[in-house]
Specification:
Blueprint lengths: L1 H17 L5 E6 L1 E2 L8 E2 L1 H13 L3 E2 L2 H10 L7 E7 L4 H13 L4 E4 L1 H5 L8 H9 L3 E4 L16 H23 L5 E3 L7 H9 L3 E3 L18 E2 L7 H7 L2 E2 L3 E6 L10 E6 L10 E4 L2 E3 L2 E2 L4 E5 L7 E10 L7 E10 L1
Parallel strand pairs: 1-5, 1-10, 2-3, 4-5, 5-6, 6-7, 8-9, 11-19
Antiparallel strand pairs: 12-13, 13-17, 14-15, 14-18, 16-17, 18-19
C-alpha cells in the first residue's frame, strides 16, 4: 500500500499544479438582525463583511442553479465557487439581507416553508415580499410545507403512511412556491438538516435535490440527496473561521457504507469508501465533539470510526478532515450528521 500512497500523492501534487481542485462551498444563513437568537443570526455588518471578503479575495459567488447543473452534468466546478442560501422564510431576509446582497450583485437562494407564510407563523416573509425578491432574481426553493421534523413519524404511523405523507408535503410545498413565484427548482433543504436514508431515497425518486445543514465542501462525487452547507451565523460568523471554511475540499466518496443519519446503534459507526489521491490516509482524522477518533482502515480505501461514548439525544456529528497535498492551506472536510430521536 505504501508504494501506491506515495505514487498517488506525487501524481496529485503534479495535477494540482496544472488545474484547480474541483470544489465549491455553500453557506447557510437564517436571521440577519441584531435582536434575534445569536445562534442563528448574523448582523447586517457581519453579512456585509462576509460579502466584502468574498469580493476582495476573488471568490466566484454563483447561483445554486449553476452549481446544481454542474454537478448533474459533470461539468467543472471552480474551486473558489461559493453559493449563498437562507433558510426559514424570515422577514429580515427581505428587509435587511436583500438590499445588501443586491448592492454586491450576488445571486442567492431562499428556502421557504409555504405553510409558515400562509399561516403567518412567526416573523416570516409575506408572499408579496417573496415575489419582489423573485423579481429581483432571487431563487426561491422548498423547505418543506411547515418546517416540520421530516423524519419523525406520527403516533401509530407506518413507514408507508409516513412516506406518503412526506411525498405529499414536498410536492404541496413545491406547488405553492410555483403558484406564488412561478419558480419550481425541485430543491429541498431539509428542515433542521434532518434526513435519513429512506427520505433521501424518496427525494431521489421525486427528482429533487436534497440539501442538508452538515458542514463540508461540494465536489463532483457529492451525493445529490445530502449536499452539505457551512453555517455562517452565530459563533461561525467570525470572519477568520469563515475564511478557513471557504478553503476546504470535498472527499471523493465512492460509497456511503454506513452513513445513515438516523442511527440504529449508539454510538454509531461511520464507514466510508474513498478514492484516495490528494491526501495521505495516515493524516485522516475524525472527531466526535472533543474526542479524536482514529480511523480504522478496513482496506486500502475503506475506513470506519466509532466514538467511545453514545451520542446525545437529538442531532450530533462526526467530522473528518485531512490536509490536501496539492493545495497548501486547504483541508478535505466531511461532516456526518447523526439523528438520535
Amino acid at each position: 500500500m505504501r508504494f501506491f500512497v506515495i505514487f498517488f500523492a506525487s501524481l496529485s501534487i503534479l495535477l494540482g499544479l496544472l488545474s484547480p481542485a474541483q470544489a465549491a462551498v455553500m453557506l447557510i444563513y437564517h436571521h440577519v438582525a441584531d435582536d434575534t437568537p445569536r445562534v442563528s443570526s448574523v448582523t447586517a455588518d457581519e453579512l456585509r463583511q462576509h460579502l466584502q471578503y468574498l469580493q476582495d479575495h476573488n471568490f466566484q459567488v454563483i447561483g445554486l442553479d449553476k452549481l446544481v447543473n454542474q454537478l448533474k452534468n459533470g461539468e467543472p466546478i471552480a474551486d473558489n465557487a461559493v453559493v449563498i442560501t437562507f433558510d426559514d422564510s424570515f422577514e429580515n431576509n427581505y428587509t435587511t439581507a436583500h438590499p445588501i446582497l443586491m448592492e454586491f450583485g450576488y445571486p442567492y437562494t431562499i428556502f421557504i416553508s409555504p405553510g409558515s407564510i400562509d399561516n403567518r407563523v412567526g416573523p416570516v416573509l409575506s408572499w408579496e415580499q417573496v415575489r419582489k425578491m423573485a423579481a429581483d432574481g432571487v431563487l426561491v426553493a422548498n423547505h418543506a410545507m411547515n418546517h416540520e421534523h421530516m423524519t419523525r413519524r406520527q403516533p401509530g404511523e407506518s413507514e408507508a403512511d409516513w412516506l406518503a405523507r412526506m411525498e405529499q408535503n414536498i410536492l404541496q410545498a413545491e406547488r405553492r412556491i410555483k403558484q406564488e413565484t412561478g419558480q419550481s427548482h425541485q430543491w429541498l433543504a431539509y428542515p433542521y438538516g434532518e434526513f435519513n436514508n429512506t427520505l433521501e431515497a424518496l427525494v431521489k425518486k421525486l427528482g429533487f435535490i436534497g440539501i442538508g445543514q452538515q458542514s463540508g465542501a461540494i465536489g463532483p462525487a457529492t451525493l445529490l440527496t445530502r449536499i452539505p452547507r457551512y453555517p455562517a451565523a452565530g459563533q461561525y460568523a467570525d470572519l477568520s473561521k469563515l475564511a478557513q471554511k471557504l478553503r476546504t475540499l470535498a472527499f471523493d466518496i465512492s460509497d456511503y457504507l454506513a452513513a445513515d443519519q438516523q442511527i440504529s446503534a449508539n454510538p454509531p459507526t461511520l464507514r466510508l469508501k474513498l478514492n484516495i489521491a490528494d491526501f495521505l490516509p495516515q493524516q485522516l482524522r475524525c472527531y466526535a465533539g472533543t474526542e479524536t477518533l482514529e480511523p480504522k482502515w478496513l482496506d486500502d480505501s475503506t475506513f470506519e470510526v466509532t466514538a467511545s461514548k453514545p451520542v446525545n439525544r437529538g442531532r450530533s456529528r462526526y467530522n473528518c478532515t485531512a490536509p490536501s497535498l496539492s493545495k497548501k492551506g486547504y483541508f478535505y472536510w466531511y461532516s456526518q450528521p447523526w439523528l438520535n430521536n
